[in-house]
Amino acid sequence: MKKYLILSTVLFVLVVSCNSNTNKKNNKDIPKKENKEKKEEVKSKLPEVVKIKGIAQNPEGIEYDKNDKTFLLSSLNAGPVIKVNADGTYKPFTSGEKFPLSTAGLQIDYKHNRLLVAGFNGTELMDNDPKTKGTAYLRVYNLKTGQIEKDINLSSLLPKASAYFANDIAIDNEGNAYISDWYARVVYKVDLDGNASVFWTNETGIPSGANGLDFHSDGYLLVSILNVNDKGLYADYGLVKIPVNNPKSAQVVKMLNEGFTGFDGMVLKSDGRVVGVTNNGTGPGGNTFIELSTDDNWLSAKVINSKSIKASTTVAVTPDNSYYIINQDFTNGEAKDWTIEQIMF
Predict the structure, then answer these.
(1) In whole angstroms, what is the distance from residue 11 CA to residue 228 CA?
(2) Is the dihedral of CA 251, 245, 321, 69 positive or negative?
(3) Which of 9, 63, 182, 194 has the fewest CB atoms within 10 Å, i.e. the most exposed one?
(4) Are 73 and 85 in contact (CB under 8 A)?
(5) Which domain holds residue 22?
(6) Residues 188/137, Cβ–Cβ less than 8 Å
(7) CA distance readout (Å), 65 to 71, 247, 326, 343
(8) Paired sense of beta strands 254-255 and 300-317, if any
(9) In terms of Cα–Cα distance, which of 258, 279, 277 is closest to 317?
(10) Residue range 260-278: mean pLDDT, rounded
(11) How do residues 231-246 score in pLDDT, each as one tens digit?
């Protein structure tokens, strides 16, 4: 991938995903009472808007920690992941790294007391030097203390890749982590002991990289693939179902209606549906929040809800199924005020 394309792409879309819910098979299993309009659902006790002031965090990824009812935000500016309270106060959380990295997607693993973070070298990706191509890391932190426990170089698995961008993370039933690399166009796998491998390479025929992803407890990943064109619109997009025990049998999910142009960040919810940030096809960046439903275990899917949003990258889903996005348009990486906003269809 050309370096100038990497630079233009970074300005418009990045990812993460963040979900630790237990998933059901598909929407056929959902009791009818759970399919009511969102306005009938229990509202979150959190405020609709959380304003963060005074820190050049430049966040791309967001997670909600149910243990202490805080939001976690990553940092494209290579600062620590921060914990944000409902009143907007915050504090640095992660520590102990030997060197800083930009961070994108976040994933909490409650079972193993871990916070998993996708790290990359944002400076190299945006330096316009064709000889540099960044790096991709999985950083594993203690969920209670924020202290780093493992720092795993993923880009070393693909020394001939044109560039690297560790982007989003999902965890399977056994605690294996799957990390999308948007620019290397692969998904890595890292087991609980830190052993890393290349799990899946995009051979769908859609010429794009892996971005948002999540794991279904029936044993497969849903992975969004997309590019961004010179107008900032999502292109070459698709959603891929990848069985974790047979990644070669990956299939592109057939979309039954319009409104899906690839996910930046996405979450597979406990009711079997997927919510995420996409593009409306007319303006640049992540400007639309949609919900997908399936009737055949993700062989096909359709958009059932859609809403225009302020520019964003991804979504956190709270235990009561409230949706929170981080407003991020990439126009000012040194901005010191940020907003977490609740979205309702």
Answers:
(1) 10
(2) negative
(3) 194
(4) no
(5) 3-343
(6) no
(7) 6, 30, 15, 18
(8) parallel
(9) 277
(10) 97
(11) 999 999 999 999 999 9
CA neighbours within 13 Å on the CB side: how many for 297? 9
User: How far is the C-alpha of 165 from the C-alpha of 179, rounded, in Å?
Assistant: 10
Cα–Cα dist 104/122, whole Å: 10
Residue 3 has pLDDT above 90, yes or no: no
No. of helices (H) and no. of strands (E), the chain? 2, 24
Domain count, the chain: 1
Burial letters 180-212, b for 16+ CB under 10 A, else e: bbbbbbbbbbbeeeeebeebbebeeebebbbbb
Q: What is the mean pLDDT of the chain?
A: 89
Rounded-to-integer distance, Cα 301 and Cα 105, Å: 24
State CA 115 to chain mean position distance.
14
Q: Any idea what DSSP says for residue 43? A: P
Mean pLDDT of 27-47: 50
CA angle 260, 49, 316 (to 5 degrees): 45
CATH of the domain at 288: 2.120.10.30
Closest CA to 23 of 174, 214, 176: 214
Query: Which one-letter amino acid corresponds to residue 199?
Result: F
**Is residue 149 classed exposed, middle or buried when 0-12, 13-18 and 19+ CB atoms within 10 A define those classes?**
middle
pLDDT band at 330 (very low <50, low <70, confident <90, very high): confident
The span from the CA of 89 to the CA of 104, in Å, is 21
pTM: 0.89
- CA 178, distance to chain mean position in Å, is 11
Encoded amino acid at 112, one letter: H
Would you tell me how many other CB atoms lie within 10 Å of the CB of residue 4? Answer: 11
Band the pLDDT of 273: cuts 50, 70, 90.
very high
Query: How crowded is residue 302: how many other Cβ atoms within 10 Å of its Cβ?
Result: 16
Q: Which of 152, 102, 97, 153 is nearest to 123 (CA)?
A: 102
